[in-house]
Write a structure and sequence with these properties.
This protein is of the alpha+beta class. The protein has five helices and 13 strands. The chain folds into two domains: 240 residues, Orthogonal Bundle (Helix Hairpins), CATH 1.10.287; 133 residues, Glucose Permease (Domain IIA). The two termini are 56 Å apart. Bound molecules: zinc ion.
Length: 377
C-alpha cells in the first residue's frame, strides 16, 4: 500500500509535474509552487502511514509480550505435569511389584493347598481301606482327618483374603495407569499449545520485521520527497533573482555539431507518438560531445530532472535562461558562474530520449521561445 503510493508519487514526479512536454509550463513559478504543494500533501500521507505503522508496531510488541508470557506459563505447566508423571510412574512401578508379589504368594498358597488336598485324599482313601480292612484305629483316623479339614479350611480363607488383597492392588494399578494416561494426554495437549504459541510468536516476529522494513522504506521515501522539495524550493528562489541580461549573441551549444533534427514548435513526439509542443530544438551530436554555455551566466540547476534526464540550466539575467537536457554527465554545479563557450556538460541520452542528442531550450521571462534566432544570424 505504502509502496504503491510511493510508486505513484515517483510516477507523478517524473511524468506529471515534471514531465517532458509539460516542462515548459512547469518551469513557471506557479508550477513549482504546485509541485511543492503536491510534495507536501504526499509527505502528509507518508506521515499518516508512519503513525499507523508505529501504532501497528506497538500492538505487535504487546502481542509478542503476551505470547511470551503464555509460553512461559505453559512451560511451567508442562514441567509440573512431567514431575507428576514421574511420580505416578514410580508409584505404578511399586504397585506392579506389589501385585507380582501378591500373585506369587497366591500361587504358593495354592500349591500348599493342593498338597494338603492330595494328602487329605490319600489319607482319606487309605483310611477307608484300612477301616475296611479293620487294621487301623478308626477314631485316630477321623480326628486326623478333622484336623486336616480345619487346616484346609483356614488356608482357603487365607487364600480368599489374599485374592481380595490382590484385587485391591489390581484396582490401584488400574487407577494409576489411568492417571498416567490422563497426565500424558494433558502433557501432549500442552505441548501442542506450546507449539502453536511458538508459531504465533514466529509469525509476529516476521510481522515486526516487515513493519520495520516498511517504516524504513517510508523514511527513505520521505527523505527523497524532502530532497525534491528542497530542490524545487531552491529553484524557485533562483528564478526569483532578477539580474540584468548579460547581453551579447549566443553561440551554438555543441561546437562542431549544428544539425537540427527536430525544430521548435508543434511536432509528432518521437517517444509518445502524439503532437506536442516541442519546447526547444534537438541537435544531433554523439554521446560524450561537449556541451558549452551559450552565453555568460550562472548555473541555476545541475541535476536530474524527470523526463529531461540530466539537465543544466543557466541564468543569463534579464529573464533569459538556457536549458541543456539528456546529458550523459554534468560538468558544473548549480551556483557556478560560467562564461560563453565553457564546457558545462556532455551529450547523452538520459531521461525520455530515443538516442544521443542535445535538447536545447531558451526561456524568456518564463516562456519558451525558438532558440534558433538566438544562436544564429
Ligand atoms: Zn527535444
Amino acid at each position: 500500500m505504502r509502496r504503491w503510493i510511493a510508486a505513484l508519487v515517483a510516477v507523478v514526479m517524473v511524468f506529471g509535474a515534471v514531465g517532458m512536454e509539460s516542462y515548459a509550463s512547469s518551469q513557471d513559478l506557479q508550477k513549482y509552487q504546485e509541485q511543492l504543494k503536491k510534495l507536501q500533501s504526499d509527505m502528509k500521507k507518508i506521515d499518516q502511514q508512519q503513525r499507523q505503522l508505529t501504532a501497528n508496531q506497538k500492538s505487535v510488541v504487546q502481542r509478542i509480550g503476551s505470547i511470551e508470557n503464555s509460553i512461559r506459563s505453559v512451560e511451567g505447566e508442562i514441567n509440573d505435569i512431567s514431575d507428576r508423571i514421574v511420580t505416578t510412574e514410580g508409584t505404578l512401578n511399586a504397585t506392579l511389584m506389589e501385585l507380582a508379589n501378591a500373585e506369587s504368594k497366591i500361587v504358593e498358597k495354592k500349591d500348599t493347598l493342593n498338597q494338603r488336598l492330595r494328602v487329605m485324599y490319600k489319607t482319606g482313601h487309605v483310611g477307608y481301606l484300612e477301616v475296611l480292612l479293620g487294621s487301623f484305629n478308626f477314631e485316630d483316623m477321623l480326628s486326623r482327618m478333622d484336623m486336616l479339614q480345619k487346616i484346609y479350611e483356614h488356608d482357603t480363607t487365607l487364600l480368599e483374603y489374599m485374592q481380595q488383597q490382590r484385587d485391591l492392588v489390581e484396582e490401584k494399578k488400574k487407577a494409576l495407569e489411568e492417571q498416567r494416561a490422563s497426565l500424558v494426554s494433558l502433557k501432549s495437549d500442552l505441548s501442542s499449545k506450546q507449539k502453536k504459541l511458538s508459531q504465533d510468536l514466529t509469525s509476529l516476529d516476521t510481522e515486526q520485521q516487515n513493519l520495520k522494513k516498511d517504516i524504513k522504506a517510508l523514511e527513505a521515501q520521505e527523505d527523497r520527497l524532502n530532497e525534491d522539495a528542497k530542490k524545487i524550493t531552491s529553484l524557485i528562489a533562483k528564478l526569483k533573482t532578477t539580474e540584468k541580461y548579460v547581453g551579447g549573441k549566443m553561440m551554438f551549444p555543441t561546437p562542431g555539431y549544428t544539425r537540427i533534427t527536430s525544430p521548435f514548435g508543434n511536432r509528432l513526439h518521437p517517444v509518445y507518438k502524439t503532437y506536442k509542443m516541442h519546447t526547444g530544438i534537438d541537435i544531433a551530436a554523439p554521446s560524450g560531445a561537449k556541451i558549452v554555455a551559450a552565453l555568460d551566466g550562472k548555473v541555476i540547476y545541475s541535476d536530474w530532472f524527470g523526463g529531461y534526464g540530466k539537465v543544466i540550466m543557466i541564468d543569463h539575467g534579464g529573464g533569459i535562461v538556457t536549458l541543456y537536457a539528456h546529458c550523459s554527465s554534468l560538468v558544473v554545479k548549480a551556483g557556478t558562474k560560467v562564461t560563453k563557450g565553457q564546457t558545462v556538460a556532455k551529450v547523452g541520452t538520459t531521461g525520455v530520449s530515443t538516442g544521443a542528442h542535445l535538447h536545447f531550450e531558451v526561456r524568456q521571462n518564463g516562456k519558451y521561445v525558438n532558440p534558433v534566432p538566438w544562436v544564429t544570424g
